[in-house]
Amino acid sequence: MGFAIDPAELQADGTRVIDLRDDSAVQGAAWAALRSDPTIGVAVVREDGFTVWCNERAAVIFLGDDAKPRDAMGKPWREIFPEPWIKERLGILRQIKQTGQGVLLRTLWRGRQQGSWIRMIDPEPQDHDSEGFMSREKPDTDEPRASDGSSLSRFLIITRRMDAREFAEVEAKRDVEVIDSDVVHLGDLDKLTARELEVLALLGQGLTVAEIGEVLHRSPKTVDRHRDKLAKKLGGTNRVELARVAFEAGLELSDASRRRTSSGPTLS
User: Fold this and answer.
1) Cα–Cα dist 59/62, whole Å
2) Is the pTM of this model over 0.85?
3) Of 38, 43, 183, 199, which has the highest C-beta tally within 10 A?
């Protein structure tokens, strides 16, 4: 049995355009799959620094391995995160609201590189958003309002931890502004000095001791000394193992000069 296809639904290459916004079952299934994916953190936040909702993976990525959604949901960020982290992200949310353009935010958090896709949710109550995959609840009349009486904007944040290669591939393929967070939580790497972080990052890029010395304007002997200290602090016995640590963390040379911070006022 054939299906009639409206020519208006065809693109220039002959493929058919399918609008999922008209298929509530597909829309619901897509959203359910996204929020339950064990590898992806999903959160809905407000422009005033408040987490409306998040899945378990988002709680783990941002708050630690034992964290649960209840540790973040319904709480202002000032109770959970450090002030520099909050200030930076509120600025990013303001930028997205003003421009209408989402961003990809790269952060080194808890010793792992992560990419967060942030976009504003359509402020108007409706059954689906502009891309047809997420239901939007009606506004809560008890929810705080903006100074002009309007509803506070909400943002969808999708976060995934990525090693160096994965992030490079995503960054190259996506037509979106990439922002590097200037605030880092180094996790187990916090025991390293800035110079040791630089050496580790360059080892992760596959550079030899001599090449690292050239980049950092240090002698190979000095680099070797830093590498020995890295091995003692991180437990890596050779250059390959140390390189693997840096690669899996997604460590970049510039991370050594970023502002270090703890998890926040209530979490260690």
Assistant:
1) 5
2) no
3) 199
